[in-house]
Write a structure and sequence with these properties.
single chain; 288 residues; mainly beta; SH3 type barrels; Jelly Rolls; 6-stranded antiparallel sheet; 43% strand
């Protein structure tokens, strides 16, 4: 039998999947209302991400059914408070005119015009207020002051290693390890005595497939000549956008060189620092 015929027969029973873009209207339990090509449809919802009215969403036709699988773009993780309180009204990103009413994490007070970090993986929560220090500055809060500080730390390099550093993209797959490299920014920006309250990483996925990637920490300030050792690994979920990280990692990273790496898991590919300057961006909130 010719190979083409064998492939055709093998795929004959595989259901056809079609991808469609629509506009989200509302959701009631497992049923979403979506506008598609001028028609308002009630379809199944299969996404754990928060979707707001007027958001563009992706639908898949699975056999006879249409299913909402999530928004078509990553929602901005930085915003500005326009109405304080809890919940607070937040414009995201600042200047866009797009707002949402979001709960504020316990213990945090926000004011109008505060720049804030939004955690969409939890359904949409104001996680922290962004402080003024830049990624390369050491915050001025004195040790033991009890002040809460949030810093953002941008990666200088990224890449993946097989038998060599063959790409600047970060691949989490069966054949490669990879990571983001921050120089000495992490240990320079977080005091040794800081209590880490929250941490997250921004992951701009180029493609995702299979199991969740295994993320961990490494001990390199820059890309080494050889391979990378990744320790304290966990399978992160979700795997795209602003993703929470274990705070315990930063008890190690605040005291030594290092960064975030991936050690196998599915076939997940993340954009390089050169392609997306926010790739691997760390947001860390701590108390002095």
């Amino acid at each position: 039998m010719r190979s083409q015929e064998w492939v055709a027969r093998s795929l004959a029973d595989v259901p056809v999947v079609e991808s469609i873009v629509g506009v989200f209207v509302s959701q009631d339990g497992p049923v979403a209302t979506v506008d598609v090509a001028g028609r308002r449809l009630s379809v199944k919802a299969a996404t754990q991400l928060r979707v707001l009215p007027s958001d563009p969403v992706r639908l898949e036709r699975r056999g006879p059914d249409l299913v909402v699988v999530g928004p078509t773009v990553n929602r901005a993780t930085l915003g500005k408070v326009t109405v304080d309180g809890n919940p607070a009204t937040v414009e995201y990103p600042d200047g866009s005119g797009v707002t949402a009413e979001l709960p504020v994490v316990d213990g945090l007070t926000v004011e109008v015009d505060d720049p804030v970090i939004i955690d969409w993986s939890s359904g949409g929560t104001v996680l922290a207020v962004v402080a003024s220090p830049t990624a390369t500055e050491t915050p001025d809060a004195p040790a033991g002051s009890g002040q809460t500080v949030t810093v953002q730390l941008f990666a200088d390099q990224s890449g993946s290693y097989g038998s060599s550093w063959w790409t600047d993209e970060v691949w989490a797959s069966s054949s490669y390890v990879g990571g983001w490299f921050y120089g000495t920014k992490i240990k320079d920006s977080i005091p040794d005595g800081a209590v880490i309250l929250a941490a997250s990483i921004y992951l701009p996925a180029k493609s995702t497939f299979g199991d969740s990637p295994n993320f961990g920490i490494h001990n390199q300030a820059v890309r080494p000549a050889g391979s990378l050792t990744v320790s304290s690994t966990v399978a992160l979920s979700p795997r795209v956008g602003e993703v929470p990280l274990p705070t315990s990692w930063f008890d190690t990273l605040k005291a030594s060189d290092g960064g975030v790496g991936v050690n196998h898991g599915g076939r997940n590919v993340y954009r390089s620092v050169g392609a997306d300057g926010n790739s691997g961006r760390l947001t860390v909130t701590y108390r002095t």
